[in-house]
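Researcher: We're teaching a course module on how sequence relates to structure. For the next exercise, students receive a sequence and then see the predicted structure as tokens, so they can try to spot secondary structure elements on their own. Here is the exercise chain.
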Amino acid sequence: MGNEYMSESLSTRPVDISIIVPLLNEEQSLQELHDKIAGVMHNAGYSFELIFVDDGSTDQSAAVIHRLAAGNPQVKMLQFRKNYGKSAALAAGFEHAAGRFVVTMDADLQDDPEEIPHLIAKLEQGYDLVSGWKKVRHDPFIKRNTSKIYNYFTSLFSGIRLHDFNCGLKAYRSDVVKSFQVYGEMHRYLPVLAHHNGFRVTEMPVKHHQRKHGQSKFGMARFTRGAFDLLTVTFLTKYKKRPLHFFGGFGVLTFLAGAVISLVLVIQRLFLHQYLSNRPLLFLGVLLIIVGMQFFSLGLIGEMIISVRHENDTYQIKSKLGWDQPPSDNK
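Model: And here is the predicted structure for the students to work with:
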């Protein structure tokens, strides 16, 4: 499939939609995915750019994308030097996206491009981020049920009620993605970050298909990383600008507990003539006082750090296709 999908008028118009597809070793899926996306965009009348972010693939994914770009000037690629993870891939795509709207989707053909116009229509109702909800999932039993647990606790801690935080199919207004700093496993929590920044977030059911080729790139370790990042995003959304409020609270509690224990022991020694040399409680009181002071110190250090902190890129781009020269010259 090539330029028959895209008329000259669409290819020269300002970009309506930037479609970002992070991928790792998905050479078998890319042609079909491209053809479906191009067909949907042509039928809907949207001008678009299709940005593949190759996250260090070791198969022929990059070669397939070069071939697609030779036949379709809307195809672009960011190729990483190594595998940095999905968050870094999305961060790079967000930085380079030029569309009024941005859509993200996985490259494994489980997300359905037919849903893109529906997501955009939802944005045009006044929302800033629309998250897909895989209401009927075609995934293994363990993955389906662990995702339910993950989504429950994410809703509980984040304060925003969604059924499916981790669905790869999402649509954003451009100013939303430009506000993100995405790293670690933060791609799972983009609706949380957007909600915290005051954007209107909603979700809608989307079709989900069985994987046709290859296998999932996410192992069991993602649950541990996801749990830690849930704590991180909870802290950042509530205490990023005031870390002393977080650490200071723990500091007050532990310091007071240690002070009360120490005061009781002092009273017992001075007035009741009880010896303290064999009292483990003495060491607990001293320990709690020290820990309380350390929490205060952490809070103060955090306050100083946020005043000078600057986020740096967490990825290295090996090559770009579609930006440095006219698309028709890319081979």
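Model: If you want an answer key for the exercise: The chain has eleven helices and eight strands. The first helix runs from residue 8 to 12.
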